[in-house]
Design brief:
With 471 residues, this protein is an alpha+beta fold. It contains 13 helices and 20 strands. The protein is globular and about 65 Å long.
């Protein structure tokens, strides 16, 4: 993992490293490189180059970008300098669906300095600061998604669904864990498993989730920057593999009211730089450590701001509710609803699992900018430990059955009920300024405020059905 540096010149790789990576790529049959920087919303952007330009690319003499023209960052004008990307040669991914291509994640620089609206640079700064404080962060993410296709009428439908689209539609057993549904999906899932295994991600399993055609991939944890890059690459890979099966993937958390929410739970743990491999959150002999609970305290303090990044769209908040009628297999959502923690309590935002020593933040979904999500998380954890923030008593009760009075008595806050509430918290949280910087934070808030206002001004089908003839 390349470290955060303060100048463009320090970021350039050595000629020996460039030659080494070029040889590896050419030996693998790579002909084209997509060096990719990350925009404000976690989406990679690129200009493909042939391998003949590889050295130029690595020395920052490849394509330049007017990032401020397309990425909702209006602090620069058409008269300002372009941004320059420097590929991170520790973040090289040969595309398993087309091995003539490789994606290399890159950092943006502007006028010799790290660009202040580069989310990947923001995460690298927090990694540096955490290491200076004596901590190295590791993360695993649980990506969930829904596979869909277009029917003959051009309408989006579930890709894996054993019932006819028209005619009798009886009440069904939930899709989750089902053997028949898993077998029916294996033509697609086998490709994913084989590719991720070949890439060395240590795939553990694939889960048929609660909603029809909904899946989760479980692969091994790694350091924060590599996990962010893997997550970003995975979103590309899923879409490309789906196209080969005449499908498409949606990361939208709640496509319909009856769907189970698709999440992307963040599992975070810490080690010390001088004791690699030793998890400071706990072990089987001693249990959970004081540091783990202080870390939870830091996350709870900054929960709403973290949620504004980890659950970043209007639709995210449709899933953070306790019950929904019409579910396949029940009404309880198993989604986080309240800002508290518990031992294996899946209704709480922060879960201390029974089978591993990490803090699981369940209020995150696949639409997040993972670089900012992990940056906010590690910053909150370090602050919690440094200031010995007590998280209070764990809540191991069924939060879905608790009353508002019981929450108030226990000092348990509700997760933001919509994007606007989350954004107001982000706007006033000092952790956001620390992680994102004032320029990136201002740009993010401006775009998200606009998203909320456009949504809030839209008359929905529900409103027409509810009110048009009633009043």
């Amino acid at each position: 993992m390349t470290a955060y540096v303060e100048t463009f010149a320090e970021a350039l790789p050595s000629k020996e490293r460039i030659a080494e990576v070029r040889k590896d790529l050419e030996d693998a049959g790579v002909e084209y490189v997509l060096s990719s920087w990350i925009d404000l919303f976690g989406i990679p952007k690129t200009k493909p180059v042939p391998m003949s330009d590889f050295e130029q690319l690595c020395m920052g003499k490849g394509p330049q970008f007017a990032v401020h023209s397309i990425s909702f960052v209006p602090e620069l004008s058409p008269a300002d300098s372009d941004q320059v990307m420097v590929p991170d040669l520790d973040a090289v991914y040969i595309c398993p669906w087309d091995k003539s291509m490789a994606i290399i994640f890159a950092d943006l620089f502007w006028e010799d300095k790290p660009y202040n609206v580069c989310p990947r640079q923001a995460l690298k700064r927090q990694i540096r600061d955490a290491k200076n404080a004596g901590y190295v962060g590791y993360a695993g993410i649980e990506p969930e998604f829904i596979a869909m296709r277009f029917n003959d009428e051009g309408q989006p439908v579930k890709a894996f669904d054993s019932d006819p689209e028209k005619g009798l539609r009886s009440r069904r057993q939930a899709f989750g864990y089902d053997v028949e549904q898993s077998i029916d999906s294996m033509s697609f899932l086998k490709d994913l498993i084989d590719m991720l295994e070949d890439m060395g991600w240590n795939m553990h399993d694939v889960v048929a989730e609660g909603g029809y055609s909904q899946f989760e991939l479980d692969f091994h944890y790694t350091d924060l920057l590599e996990m962010a890059d893997r997550y970003t690459f995975l979103r590309i890979l899923l879409k490309e593999v789906a196209k080969e099966h005449d499908m498409f993937i949606t990361f939208m958390p709640k496509p319909t009211s009856g769907d189970w929410r698709s999440g992307a739970h963040i599992n975070l743990s810490l080690q010390r730089p001088d004791a690699p491999g030793v998890n400071i959150f706990g072990n089987d002999k001693d249990g959970w450590s004081d540091e783990s609970l202080w870390a939870v305290g830091g996350l709870i303090k900054h929960s709403e701001a973290i949620t504004a990044i980890a659950c970043p769209i209007v639709n995210s908040y449709n899933g953070l509710v306790p019950r929904v009628g019409g579910f396949e297999g029940g009404t309880v959502t198993w989604a986080p609803t309240n800002i508290t923690y518990g031992y294996n309590n899946r209704a709480a935002q922060f879960r201390l699992p029974q089978n591993r020593y990490c803090i699981e933040n369940r209020a995150a979904d696949m639409c997040m900018n993972v670089y900012l999500g992990l940056g906010m998380s590690i910053a909150g954890v370090v602050k919690g430990i440094q200031n010995k923030m007590e998280p209070g008593e764990p809540c191991n009760l069924n939060l879905y059955n608790m009353t508002d009075e019981e929450f108030e008595a226990a000092g348990i806050r509700r997760l933001p009920r919509n994007l606007m509430i989350a954004l107001e918290a982000l706007r006033h949280d000092e952790l956001a300024v620390q992680v994102m910087g004032p320029v990136m934070l201002k740009s993010y808030l401006a775009y998200k405020d606009d998203e909320w206002e456009r949504y809030h001004q839209t008359v929905t089908d529900w409103e027409v059905s509810e009110y048009l003839r009633l009043f």
